[in-house]
C-alpha cells in the first residue's frame, strides 16, 4: 500500500499540473474580459464627468474605478508576496483626467495579468492575507477581487446614464 501512494502521485502529477494550468488560463481569460469591460465603461463616460458623483457622499466616477483597480493591484501585490504595491499612476492626475484614469486602469490590469501568467507552480495555492484580514488561498483572493470589480462596475451604470452615456454591452463568455 505504501508504494501505491507515491506511484499514484507520480502518475497523477502531470494531470494535476495540467489542471492547475487550465485553471490559471481560465483566470487569465476572466481577467482579460474584465479589463475589456472596465476600460469600455471608462471610455463611455464623457471626459467632463470624471469628477461626477450622483449624490453627495458617494465616490466620484473616477474614484469608483480607482476603488476597482487599486483593489486588484493590492491583491496582485499580495499574490506576489510583496508588502507594497508599485506606483502605477498619480492619483492627482487619474482622479481628474479620463485619459490618466484609463492609463492607470490599464497598468493595474497588466500587473494583475503578469502576476497570473508568471506565477510559479503552487503560488495560487499559497495562503495570503490582504488588508490584514483573514488568510485564504491566493487564488481565492484573485477570484474575490474579480467579483468585487464586477460588482463595483455595476454601480457605475447610473453614473453613465445620468451623464447621457449608454453603458457598453457587457462582454460575457457565452
CATH fold type: Four Helix Bundle (Hemerythrin (Met), subunit A)
CATH class reads Mainly Alpha
List the secondary-structure elements in sequence, H or E.
Answer: HHHHEEHH
Level-2 CATH architecture: Up-down Bundle
**Mean pLDDT score, rounded?**
89
Oligomer: single chain
Q: What's the number of structural domains?
A: 1
Strand content: under 5%
How would you portray this structure in words?
- The chain is mainly alpha-helical and 174 residues long.
- It has a single domain, classed as Four Helix Bundle (Hemerythrin (Met), subunit A).
- Helices cover 62% and strands 3% of the residues.
- It is built from six helices and two strands; from the N terminus they run H-H-H-H-E-E-H-H.
- It has helices at 4-44, 61-79, 91-94, 98-118, 138-155, 157-161, and strands at residues 127-129, 135-137.
- It has a two-stranded antiparallel sheet with strand order 1-2.
- Helix 1 packs antiparallel against helix 4 (98-118), helix 1 runs parallel beside helix 5 and helix 2 runs antiparallel to helix 5 (138-155).
- The longest helix is centred in the first third of the chain and has 41 residues, at 4-44.
- The chain is globular and about 45 Å long.
- The N and C termini lie far apart (46 Å).
- Mean pLDDT is 89; it is low at 6-19.
